[in-house]
Amino acid sequence: MTRLTVDAAVVGGGLIGTWTALFLAKRGRKVALLDKGYIGAQSSGVNFGNLRLQGRHPAQYPLSMRAQALWEDLENLIGDRCEFDPTGHLYCAYDDKETEALHHYAEVSEANGLAIERLDGAALAKRFPWISGKAVAATYSPRDATANPRLVSPAVARAAKALGATIIENCRVQEIVARGGSFELRTETELTIDCGQVVNSAGAWGAQIAADFGETAPTFPAGPPQFVTEPLPYFLRPSVQTIDGTVIARQIPRGNVILTGYPRTASDPVANKAPVPPFKTLAGMRHLTALIPKLQHAHVIRVWSGIEAYLPDMIPIIGPSATTPGLIHAFGFCGHGFQIGPGVGLCLSEMIIDGTTPTPLGAFSIERFRGDVAASEKFRKELTRCRSFSRNCEICA
Amino acid sequence: MPDHRSGQMRDTVGRVQFHRVAQHASRPVSISFDGEVIATREGESLLAALLTTRGSLRQHEFDGGRRAGFCLMGACQDCWVELADGRRLRACTTLVEDGMAVVSQVRQKGDVA
Amino acid sequence: MSSVVIVGAGPAGIRAACTLVEHGLRPIVIDEARLAGGQGYRRPPPALSLDIKRLMGSEYGKYEALHRDFDALHDKIDYRPRTLVWAIDGNMLYLISDGRPSTQTFDKLILATGAMDKVAPLPGATLPGVFTLGGAQIALKDQGCLIGRHVAFVGSSPLLTLAAKQYRQMGAEIALIADTTPLKNKIRELPTLAKSPRTLMRGIAYQAQALASGTPILSGVTSIAIEGATRVEGVRVTTASGRERTIACDAVALGYGLKPETQLADLAGARFAYDALFNLWLPVTDADGRAADNLYLAGDGAAIGGADAAEASGALAACAVLTDLQIAVPISTMQGLRRTVSRLRAFQRGLAGAFAWPRHMIRQLPDDLTLCRCEDVSVGDVRTAMRREFAPVEINRVKAITRCGMGRCQGRVCGPALQEIVAEAAHCSGTAAGRLRGQAPIKPIALAAGSEP
């Protein structure tokens, strides 16, 4: 048996885990990151790659803005751009009611220091002539960006390792034993880790770890149905999203257009499967051509999804355990963890080293699931009804 | 990097790739390639109609080279061509239809369509 | 009545349909092609003045019988040509026909999806004028065209000489037949090949004819490169004796045997196992073709066996369906079919042993060679990505990081070679390198197909 003693152990080598390890290592802390499989193999590696700032949950803006500054400095931080591209983000409304919601989101964004341009139908048609006349208004945020999720986690892991972090793949943690101020992590391999603090960044598998410490996290595994087209001439510079969530699309400079969209699809973390129901692919094709008619002749060449953990109020769990000092949770990112990932890593490193972080994270405490939980309208609509994979699901039609 | 002029030059010096050894006794069908009219017959595949009159079908998106298809059975997806009306067709499994106007896909990376 | 769907109207699909009809069922037969027959028994368009009898040679009788029997089924089956099955979800097939989407449920599904050529990347393989060996034959049968006037047939396959013979008959000049298989390997497998003496004799006859006509036939070449700046101008080979030869030609037909089209089987839930002889992941079935609940595989899409095995295995899979539907089938019929399938597939395994996939050669391919034709990923790109820290070591991760196998064809063409490059770089077996997973749509589908009601 091998024993390793570190300051902090991080369980789960996705975006959150690798960024946390990086920031801990940067400040000289001894950190070990363990993953049951490969670095960035799950939703961290297969998500859409949006670094979207518009339309986020109001409580998340301080964290989001802090994270975006880190993304903008990615090359300095980890020595790799990971196809980071400040594409801007166009948020579109199809009717007056949606326009009202759009402008409400814009006010929240602006209150948090984000510059937003408001475009009416005429301005939209002039500036983005490929968009359908169905879109009557839009807001444009130039600071929103995109990056390649497949590349990020391994690149952050490399940077963390270069700063001294210990990173071990294919090492499932079997049991975490808390012993008055310290922890012992037993793994399926020969390795046992002793540490003062533990970060639970195990994504869709994180709720089980919380449960082991007597904490409730009502996560539901799901993923977005996504597809990619064949390469096309590059024309779609900003990432584009309809406010109803049916279209979230971007084009990479190689030419492929990628689509994700609501509603999500149930996935299976036990069998490690995230199937995309074909009727959802057809719906996505329909929604995308409704927004960008010139794409009607493009071909879909591949679909995929991921295994993400969703929570009923559609915001993640970030913060200390309510039962076990030294344990910090960061999971259940409800499909929007990519953008805030580096910010979360930085905040967790501050909590571990400084005992506190300047970024307000109170809204994300796991304690909120002690009592009755109000499910967000979005969660209710998207996930509870789609649980059965029903092709007759009314919101998929 | 795809280059518009060299792409066209390469194609004009190209030879005919396919050689017809059996004739279609069917209705004449007229298609075009970059504006040049091609006389074909009903029942001909778009790929055969193009390769019996030129050396290649398209320019590859990434390596800039010309391509003329590969598997001819709809599996390798290396013979997709574009029509002037925007439609994209797999040439080996598509039959010619009157008025099909194929445009060579020569474009530069970063071109705004 | 239970709905039985057959996907593919080649020899396996047709014989499955015939068997089901004989027992009173009315199967749905879905096929991507306009005309039935599959690839090998492809039927030329009616107005093409092609002497198909001469082209099919000794196989014409079977070709003719197959098409005659299928034509006789026309009012007894629900035949849907020009229809792509692009996804499977539970017992529902997702179809696109003439640009319009639809669905079809099934109680029992027989997949007879056939095979395509297995190819290895070569220098110059993306040049206009390089086609697969199967493609060269389809150009002839389907379109009455030769892929060139001076054609080289290269790779590792007994079909090199067969295709060359057809090309010579139709007026082409055969520039070269070059096989990476050493002559001694072919001789070593003679006892296995002798299990199907008729096929063996055909192979020997083709070879003799090619020799007699003065075509250079090279066995055991150790390297093949296609030359030309913007089109095929020649083939450069290193012969078994180490001599380098360049032979002028204007087209190349390339083939290393066949590779099952298993994308739909994958989506339908078949299990796969790595076959160290074929160096491919093949679906696992029982002797009758059962792959999962209500899923049956037949023909070359299940296991490479050739056209005769495809016919027998199609009939056998249909018998399995009938048996599972509690419809009696004579035991002797099934036993006979099982023996035929097993004998012919064993013969093909012998061929695969003789005409081996040049694994060692592929693993040593130079870095600058294009591996993925769709996404323009080189052998070196894959090796470089795999050398990095926290690098992918499993083939689907390699695909995610390098885009190799991520393009329009979804790794159909580069997959087998990628498997070798990954196994070599990870110092592991083909099994440990992992299997490229299939994803819908199994072929590109136009966004416009989602717009129809």
Protein architecture, described:
The complex is a heterotrimer of chains A (397), B (113) and C (453). In chain A, α1 runs parallel beside α7 and α3 crosses α10. Chain A has a domain of 181 residues: FAD/NAD(P)-binding domain, CATH 3.50.50. Helices cover 29% and strands 25% of the residues of chain A. In chain A, strands 1, 2, 8, 9, 10, 11, 20 and 21 form an 8-stranded mixed β-sheet that branches. In chain A, β15 and β16 form a beta hairpin. Chain B has 113 residues and is an alpha+beta fold. Chain B contains 2 helices and 8 strands, in the order αβββαβββββ. In chain B, strands 3-2-8-6-7 form a 5-stranded mixed β-sheet. In chain B, strands 4-5 form a two-stranded antiparallel sheet. In chain B, β2 and β3 form a beta hairpin. The longest helix of chain B has 10 residues. The N terminus and C terminus of chain B are likely disordered. In chain C, 36% of the residues lie in helices and 22% in strands. In chain C, a hairpin with a 4-residue loop joins β23 and β24. Chain C contains 16 helices and 25 strands. In chain C, the strands form 7 sheets. In chain C, strands 3-2-1-7-22-21 form a 6-stranded mixed β-sheet, covered by helices on one side. With 453 residues, chain C is α/β, with parallel strands linked by helices. Chains in contact: A-B, A-C, B-C.
Can you summarize this structure?
The complex is a heterotrimer of chains A (397), B (113) and C (453). Helices cover 29% and strands 25% of the residues of chain A.
Keyphrases for this structure?
heterotrimer; B: 113 residues; Ubiquitin-like (UB roll); two-stranded antiparallel ribbon; 2 helices; 8 strands; 14% helix; globular; disordered N terminus; disordered C terminus; C: 453 residues; alpha/beta; Arc Repressor Mutant, subunit A; 3 domains; five-stranded parallel β-sheet; 16 helices; 36% helix
